[in-house]
Design brief:
It is built from 5 helices and 4 strands; from the N terminus they run ααααββββα. It is mostly helical and 98 residues long. It has one domain.
């Protein structure tokens, strides 16, 4: 859709401004202990803190390439991609000033 809008804008002497933001690398920078401390500073405690800590701890990844499978590696940073919670976690860490 962006390509067709851009083509249409250039052929009809209109301008198109497009801003694309890729947060996927940002989610990789989330450190669990920093997030939990920020949430505690925001007076969030009890169940939500325990749940978030559990959700983000002991996450692992592996690579499959040409049928070869690597060993699992435990991640010490990052949040799962594709979850709405990851966006909220990132915003809590980066944009909420206490």
């Amino acid at each position: 859709m962006i390509d067709s809008d851009q083509t249409s804008a250039t052929t009809t002497a209109h301008h198109a401004r497009v801003l694309l933001i890729d947060f996927s690398s940002a989610f990789n920078s989330i450190r669990t202990h920093v997030l939990l401390k920020r949430l505690l500073d925001l007076k969030v405690n009890g169940g939500p803190i325990l749940w978030i800590g559990d959700f983000l701890s002991d996450c692992s990844q592996r690579v499959i390439f040409n049928g070869n499978v690597s060993e699992r590696t435990i991640l010490i940073t990052g949040a799962p991609h594709g979850t709405i919670l990851s966006l909220y976690y990132y915003m809590i860490i980066k944009f909420i000033i206490i």
